[in-house]
Structures are given as C-alpha cells and as structure tokens.
Amino acid sequence: MFTTINPATGEAAGTYPELSAEEIEAKLARAAATFRAWRVTGLAERTALLERIADRFEADKQRLAEIATREMGKTLKSAVAEVEKCAAAFRHYAEAGPAMLEDRTFAVSTGTATARWLPMGPVLAIMPWNFPYWQVVRFAAPTIMAGNVGLLKHASSVQGVAAALEETMLAAGAPEGLFQNLAIRSDKVDALIADDRIVAVTLTGSEGAGIKVAEAAGRALKKVVLELGGSDPFIVMPSADLDAAVKAAVTARVQNTGQSCICAKRMIVHADVYDAFLEKFSAGMQAVKAGDPMDEGTDMGPLSSEEQRETVLGQLDMIRREGGRLLFGGEALPGAGAFMSAGILVDVPVEHAVAKEELFGPVAMVFRAGDVDEAVRLANDVPFGLGSSVWTNDAAEQERFVRDVEAGMTAVNQMLSSAPEAPFGGVKRSGHGRELGPYGLHEFMNLKTVVREGGTGETQVE
C-alpha cells in the first residue's frame, strides 16, 4: 500500500494499493495487445485522441492541480499552470505530429530509398515527483502520436497524480492499455525492463537512478532516454539588463521551491556587476514568501517531504564547513510542514565536491567571475550539463557561451524553460537523448529504410 503525505501539513493525503505480480502481468499483456491495434491506427485517429485528452486536462485542471499540490507541495497556481502546459503539449503533437512523421525519399544508385518512421511497442516511463504531470506528458504525448503505448512507474509520493493521469486518458476515450499506471515500487523495475514486451525505457530522475536503469537497459539491449540532474549556471555579464536578470534569477531559483532540474542553481556574475547584482538578488530572495501552497499569495510552498528538506539542510551544513558563507535564509521554518526559507550562499569553495553537487532546494550559490573565460570555466566545472542561462547584450559573448558552455540547452537573456516545440535534454552526467519537439517523438521509433527500383533520381520529400 502506498500512502502519500501532504508536505505542507505532514498529514496523509491518500492511500493507494500496490499492484500484485498477477496485476502487473495483466497490464503488460494488455499493453502488448493494445499496441498491436494502435500501431496501425491512422494519424487522424491519433490526433483526434490527443485533442480530446487536451480538452480533458483543461476542463479538469483545478482538480488535477489540487492533487499535485497536496502530494508534493507546489503552489496551486503553479500546479494549474503545469496542467495547462500539459494540454498545450497534447495539442502541439496533435497539430505538428503528422508532419514530423512524413516519409522522406532519397535518390540512391539502385533507385530510391524511403525513410519511414514506425512505432516500436510499449515504452516504460519512470518519472519523478517534482513536475508530476508535465514530466509524464513529455513522454506520453509523443508516445501516443508515434503509435506506441506507455506504461508509467511514477514516484511513490505522487500516486494520486499517477492514478489521475490514467483516469484522464481513459475519460478522453483512450483505448484501455494505451496508457497504464503501474503502482509499483522501484524493486520491480529491473524485471519490467528485462521483459520482452517492453521495447524501451525513459527516465527522469537522479543520477543514481539513471545509472541503475541504464545498466538494466544495457543488459536487455534496449533504448533508453535519461534526463537526470542539473546544476545549471546563470551567467550575468556587464552589458546585461541587471534588473531583468535579477528578476529572472529569483524566479529561476525558487520556482517549485528550487526542486527543478533546470532551476538556475549557480549564479556566475562578472566582477564589474557582482556587488550590484548580489544586492538586488538578495532583496528579491528575501522577499520570497513561503507558506500555504493553496494560498494565491504564496510564492513558494514546502519542499516535497521532510526527508528532502533534511537532504538540503545537510548539503548547506557541508558547504559551510568547507568555507562557504550563508548570507541569509536556508533554514527550516518552524511549525508543521517541510518549509524552509530562500537563501544565498557566497564564498563557496569551487575546488570542493560539495560545490559541484545539485542543490535541490531554494538556495542559490553566487560566484564571482573576472572575465568571460573564467565564467565559462566555472559554468563547466560540474559533472552536469543540462541547462544554462546567459545574460549579455554583447553578440560575441552570446556566441561564446552558446558554443562553449557544456549543456544541452542555453537560454539567452531569459530564464530557461521547457516548451513542447523544442528538444529538451542534457549532456555529461545529466543524461542523454531528447524529449519534446520532433526529436522527442522520434526517440522511440524505428526509422525504417525502404529501397525500391526506379524513381526520378532526385531527392524529394513525399
């Protein structure tokens, strides 16, 4: 039995039964059977279903958002925005998906070769609690469009969200077996990956979880996409609009209570504007209001659990023991719930491992850089490479950062965020593969080449 806990109160939010071995087998069999039918459906049928799912998300956004807020603590207004973003993703693939799946024909010496995208089968998704709807939809929308079927192993702490996702799909008219929630614990994952009916795996989560899943997928010779941790740099240069940069920096650091892989975690600021930035940034972070996530006036809810708060507080203690200085905040707030205050760390020793860890809470590390070269070096001096944000109005500096910052994504003069239209993913120990955009659709498809005699001898798109 799963019991979810409301991190704002410490009280139980709901209980959910864990699947038996027989129930798991039944869901796998249903997925395989549904795939055989869904893989040959026309694109019009797939897009119509995606539109209906989007309608259901929009119609039920308040209820869905409240489930997420109760289970992992994000503010209700941000949870509503997350559900709305999910609807937008389903609509995007309904509208743009067919063009992404068009055949391409090329001239070859024997005639023509046509590249065709074909579905592969049931895909297992292992997803985290921090964006409990959006992380799942990033996989589910392209999976349905591709003609595959999905099986979700969600985080134990958001089982209400997991159940609501499957219910929403079915309410929109999805065939049984097209998208199924697997209420199981992590010790069941290896056996699922090894099962011949599962053709591929996608995981969003920690570096450690990614290693375990990659090992299991490697043993089974199955495709895997990994979106892991990040310690994203937020670089500010003298030519930047400082007020805009500070406003974005505050939002980027405390959104979702700092529990986002692409939250800006390390502020790397040129020495010429360091003091001015730090003064403005400190004022912005001190103004962040933590409180009841259901309250419209709250800026930041609790962390996802007491355990997560203790992890962050432990990291902060370690940083301070190594010489880092906490300017303010970064403390557990009194009373019920896993609340803590937003804070800023300075003088963090870059040579120590603690400076290279992902800090999954609402505390920013601020570093001083003497020039562009040092800013790039500091940005890259971590094992992660997910996202980055650079603030400069110098075109040459912009190109330098885009070229040399080791990350899967770079935002220029704006806060980094994901969008259904654009590929999302990282390099280094932040994982591999891409979600979203056409590349996310193609990750779990068979690009089949069909060679025929004859043809015009000219390259064309069919």
From TrEMBL:
Transmembrane segments: none
Keywords associated with the record: NADP, Oxidoreductase
Name by which UniProt lists this protein: NAD-dependent succinate-semialdehyde dehydrogenase
Any one Gene Ontology molecular-function term assigned to this protein's record: succinate-semialdehyde dehydrogenase (NAD+) activity
Family annotation (PANTHER family): SUCCINATE SEMIALDEHYDE DEHYDROGENASE [NAD(P)+] SAD (PTHR43217:SF1)
Domain Aldehyde dehydrogenase: 2-450
Domain of life: Bacteria
Family: Belongs to the aldehyde dehydrogenase family.
Lineage, broadest ranks: Bacteria, Pseudomonadati, Pseudomonadota, Alphaproteobacteria, Sphingomonadales
Family matches, as InterPro entries: Ald_DH/histidinol_DH, Ald_DH_C, Ald_DH_CS_CYS, Ald_DH_N, Aldehyde_DH_dom, ALDH_GabD1-like, GABD/Sad-like
Pfam families: Aldedh
Source species of the chain: Sphingomonas aracearum
Gene3D superfamilies assigned: Aldehyde Dehydrogenase, Chain A, domain 1 (3.40.605.10), Aldehyde Dehydrogenase, Chain A, domain 2 (3.40.309.10)
Stored PROSITE patterns: ALDEHYDE_DEHYDR_CYS
Matching CDD domains: ALDH_SSADH1_GabD1 (cd07100)
